[in-house]
Task: inverse folding
């Protein structure tokens, strides 16, 4: 039993080390992002950008660019959702109009 617990603990530690080596964890408010490092290092493991100023963003262009792409993805998903919702709404309206026209023609 003790051996199994040691293996599980070792796997957990390895996972944290691998994540720290491969990714930078970025906290912005209540959101967390994982930015892949290139090349992988143990530098910049965790960055809290909640209270950053424009100067801070300017000195860290990779983090700034990454956060912009994340914001663009989020906005794109929101816009796509609204567009699809509007399309469905108009489809229903068109069906009603066609049905009303067919009823009038009978």
Result:
């Amino acid at each position: 039993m003790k051996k199994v617990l040691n293996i599980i603990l070792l796997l957990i530690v390895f996972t944290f080390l691998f994540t720290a080596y491969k990714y930078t964890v970025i906290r912005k408010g209540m959101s967390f992002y994982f930015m892949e490092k290139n090349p992988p290092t143990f530098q910049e493991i965790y960055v809290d950008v909640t209270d950053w100023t424009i100067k801070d963003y300017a000195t860290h262009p990779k983090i700034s660019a990454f956060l912009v792409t994340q914001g663009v993805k989020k906005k794109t998903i929101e816009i796509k959702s609204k567009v699809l919702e509007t399309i469905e709404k108009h489809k229903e309206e068109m069906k009603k109009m066609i049905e009303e026209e067919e009823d009038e023609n009978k």
Notes: The two ends are 80 Å apart (CA to CA). The longest strand covers residues 23-28. The chain has two domains: 1-50, 52-106. The chain has a mean pLDDT of 86.
